[in-house]
Amino acid sequence: MSGAVNDRRRINGPARSVEPIYTPTVLDSVAKGRSDGRGLDHMRPIYAKAGPISDAQTTASASGSAFYEQGSIRISCAVYGPRSARKPNARRAHFVCDFQYAPFACSKRSPTQSTDEHETSLWLSNTVGPAIRLEMYPKSSIDAYVTVIESDGKMATLAATINCISLALADAGIEMYDTVAACSMGLRDSQWIVDCTHQENAECSVLVAYMPSVDEVTGVLQTGKTTLEVHEQGVQLCTNVCVRVYAVICRALQASVE
Amino acid sequence: MASTEQLTFAIETFKRIHPVEFQRRFLSQDTRHDGRAFLQFRATHVVKGTIGTAQGSATVRIGNTTVVCGIKAEVSEPDVNTPDQGYLATNVDLSPICSANYRPGAPGDEAQVDSEHIFRLFGEVVDLKQLCIENDQAVWSLSADIVCLKSDGNVLDAAIIALMAAVEDLKLPQASLDPATGVVSADKAIETQLTLRKRLFPATFSLVDDAYLVADADDAEERLTTATLLVVLDDQGHLANVWKRGAGTIDRPTIARCIAEAKNRQNVVSSALE
Prior knowledge:
The complex is a heterodimer of chains A (about 260) and B (about 270). Chain A has about 260 residues and is α+β, with helices and mostly antiparallel strands. Chain A contains three helices and twelve strands; from the N terminus they run E-E-E-E-E-E-E-H-E-H-E-E-E-E-H. In chain A, the strands form three sheets. Chain A has a five-stranded mixed β-sheet with strand order 4-5-6-8-7. A four-stranded antiparallel β-sheet of chain A has the order 10-9-11-12, sandwiched between helices. In chain A, strand 9 and strand 10 form a beta hairpin. Classes of the chains: A alpha+beta (about 260), B alpha+beta (about 270). Chains A and B meet through strand 2, strand 3, strand 6 and strand 8 of A and strand 3, strand 4, helix 3, strand 6 and strand 8 of B.
């Protein structure tokens, strides 16, 4: 439901609008296997491209950019920096992520989306930040702007966002310890399945952001209820899948240089 | 590299430190820096139905400029004064992901102006009465958002074409209001598309450096543009809209020339929209 505030800077629709109740066309009765035929530990196919904006001939372009697709998740990221910061005397660069959903990105527009975006921006800065050698760029700021064009599964989209930002940062030539690779898993019937879509409503999910070369985890996010053992198992499995995602990101970077 | 009298530069260096002169070198020789003729538009590609989460969508590319439009449909009560009409809100989103010219956060001046202009244009295209579900009780409210993914000049043309394509792509599920509960239910199995009153075909021309008239200016040329003229034609080839922006002046023969050229452009855009 969009409880649209009367935003004077936008063309506003009616003050209140809701989604109609959609009559279910095909019941989501996925007893065995998944709706798109994937294996339980298969990720959706990833297409990643570094530098779609930044190598353009335009004069006003980003230092680095990336376009990332995972199944039907589509994310675009532009990185500006290092550029001069507001705080001129900082020893380390100031890294900020600005995250936003395109208005049509989610299957449901909700009024909490904007607070969600703020929280996610902060969380992304804290998850991708540790990978950057901020001390190499004193008195500067590095800004990553991310827009989710299409979202499919909240945790999966977050994981994809981290991958996209890592790719864009590397494309910008910013010094990092390693590119951060992330992936998410959902728990269903006591079994962890990788990369859940929006349809595969998992009761509990876990997301891990991992730097394989230095074997360090930069972020873990869990929603839902589960036992400690199952959680640990999920994090371990997730970390293993992150290594595969990492390979994809590296290949995309290589392709952009060739 | 340097003689004592003059400096010579590598072409990329020259382009960065002296952009005006760089462009002039081409324009004064009757050509443009990307090799196009003055009134030549860039290749235009339209793909409909690119966003799965939106009821109508399209992605448009004009050269390097990429714009995606998504239309989401929700249900609401109609306005008291127009009980049989739905809503169409159009918004243009220009953010740092497309160009360093824009700041993050609330829509800036350019985005607001473009949104308003497109909103007025499309008031003629979509018949809001088609969005009525139940007179005086429930109507469709369409939110059309045009997000620029990459800006290399002439975002406005791309935005209009994207919205045009998205509206043509829009599929509304059949909706019915339950009078007892007041709840609207919709069946995705049966979908209808809108019948549009007219279709719009935009063409933008720019006066670069106050002297040269070019069509479809890219980012480098837009920086030197003193005046811009948007010409929008409808399916009959009639003028739907003429909008001049910028402080520079365009004389009347030039405007007439632009309108004539816009007719050629209309055929190209029309076939791209198919």
